[in-house]
Design goal:
The protein is of the alpha/beta class. The protein has one domain: L-arginine/glycine Amidinotransferase, Chain A (5-stranded Propeller). Helices cover 30% and strands 18% of the residues. The protein contains 10 helices and 12 strands. The longest helix is centred in the N-terminal third of the chain and has 21 residues. The termini are far apart. It comes from Arthrobacter humicola. This is Arginine deiminase-related protein. InterPro entries: Amdntrnsf_FN0238.
Length: 293
């Protein structure tokens, strides 16, 4: 197991009631969807009753969508996660959004090459940069292939936690938003590469918020900027918000409304709010005349 955030969940799952944990997780997912909808964010919530897919609450690992009608399907490190890829979700997206091209990298699993979507990569859609912390879940070959196909500049770096363990997913240590970025810079051991990452994040006038290892371990880096009816919101867990300083929150609130949600059970499984969301960057199909929507 290379997800250092997941230990507590494994311990509780083995010693406690799995059904109770599942019910709590379902409640938290439903609560997140309701909070986003209340903020004016369009939400598509998909049920999954397959008990062999306990991590399907993290769809961003197998699916990404992109402007211009493009979708990426990704190779997953854990064999039991590979059947999380669902054709019904792809069919839904094709029906309701303009999809021109689906690029499927899942065949790379046969060669033990993995790239777990926007968990392994944090994408700066505006500057077209793909940030990735090298790990078994973020292979440089797959990253290069994705960047070539989708038109991103790869920004690969090494990152380790306080125990010297490689950061398993980039999105637990970095968030890129419109007016700011949050990053656990201290987790990048190379001073040269750390400076390059910081400078790239700051390009274009974006404010860079440095997160401490303590904040990272409490999922402060695992946030996502979304578009609501009245402006942008930053969705993150209440646990993560509790670790941010007043100064950090002030920077965020200059361009976003903070939207904290309680997801303690989900966080035991090794991910937080950002991991629970696969962002949609596709154009909607027009609703035919006379059809309700």
């Amino acid at each position: 197991m290379d997800n250092a955030f997941q230990t507590a969940f494994q311990m509780q799952a083995h010693s406690g009631d799995r059904q109770t944990l599942a019910a709590a997780a379902r409640h938290e997912v439903t609560g997140l969807a309701a909070a986003l909808e209340a903020a004016g964010v369009t939400v598509h919530l998909f049920e999954d009753h397959d008990e062999t897919r306990p991590d399907s609450v993290f769809p961003n690992n197998w699916l990404s969508t992109h402007a211009g009608g493009r979708i990426g399907i990704f190779p997953m490190y854990a064999p039991n996660r590979r059947h999380e890829r669902r054709s019904d979700i792809l069919d839904f997206l094709k029906t309701h959004y303009r999809v021109q091209d689906v690029i499927d990298y899942s065949g790379l699993e046969m060669d033990s090459v993995f790239l777990e979507g926007t968990g392994a990569m944090v994408l700066d859609h505006g500057a077209r940069v793909a940030y990735a912390a090298r790990s078994r879940r973020a292979d440089p070959v797959a990253l290069e292939r994705f960047c070539t196909n989708f038109g991103y500049e790869p920004m690969l770096f090494d990152a380790v936690d306080v125990n010297g363990t490689a950061v398993y997913h980039t999105n637990v240590m970095m968030t890129v938003a419109t007016g700011f970025a949050m990053v656990g810079a201290d987790l990048i051991p190379s001073a040269v590469r750390r400076r390059e990452v910081m400078e790239r994040l700051a390009a274009g006038g974006r404010t860079v918020i440095e997160l401490s290892p303590h904040q990272i371990s409490n999922f402060a880096g695992n946030a996502i900027e979304l578009q609501g009816v009245e402006g942008r919101v930053l969705a993150l867990s209440r646990r993560a918000l509790g670790t941010l300083t007043a100064e950090q929150k002030a920077v965020i609130e200059r361009s976003c409304t903070l939207l904290p949600v309680d997801v303690p059970t989900i966080e035991l499984a090794g991910g937080s709010v950002r991991c629970m969301i696969a962002g949609i960057h596709l154009d909607r199909r027009p609703v035919p005349a006379g059809v309700g929507g």
